[in-house]
């Protein structure tokens, strides 16, 4: 799914993604969805993330670990 939220307000986006989340968990499936800057409440519905920058994957993994991942590399960069 690519940019399912284009032109929608944050509440509608949340409800669409929440419905998809419920379906995926019920069916034990997977959906790959691209969203540009989703609202926080929508972002928190995702289990796993793939983040890209300039065409390169910069993170792939659990949503709950993404901040730790970037903080780790920020600390390394400070030491260099």
Question: Mind explaining what this structure looks like?
Answer:
The protein has 80 residues and is an alpha+beta fold. It has one domain. It contains three helices and two strands, in the order ααββα. Strands 1-2 form a two-stranded antiparallel sheet. Strand 1 and strand 2 form a beta hairpin. The radius of gyration is 15 Å and the shape is elongated.
Could you name the key traits of this structure?
80 residues, 3 helices, elongated, alpha+beta
How far the N terminus sits from the C terminus, by CA atoms, comes to 40 Å
Instruction: Give the strand line-up of the largest sheet.
Output: 1-2
Q: Describe the oligomeric state of these chains in a short phrase.
A: single chain
- Spans of at least 5 consecutive residues whose pLDDT stays below 50 are none
Count of distinct structural domains: 1
Rounded mean pLDDT score: 88
Shape: elongated
- Number of DSSP strand runs: 2
- Please bin the fraction of helical residues: 40-55%
Q: What is the strand content?
A: 15-25%
Our count of helices gives 3
Query: What string gives the helices and strands in order?
Result: HHEEH
Reported for the largest beta sheet, the result is: 2 strands, antiparallel
**Structural class computed from helices and strand pairing:** alpha+beta
Tell me the Rg in angstroms.
15 Å
């Amino acid at each position: 799914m690519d940019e399912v939220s284009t032109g929608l307000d944050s509440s509608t986006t949340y409800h669409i993604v929440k419905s998809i989340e419920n379906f995926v968990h019920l069916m034990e499936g997977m959906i790959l969805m691209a969203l540009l800057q989703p609202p926080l409440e929508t972002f928190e519905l995702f289990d796993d993330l793939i983040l890209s920058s300039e065409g390169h994957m910069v993170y792939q993994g659990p949503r709950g670990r993404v901040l730790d991942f970037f903080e780790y590399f920020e600390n390394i960069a400070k030491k260099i």
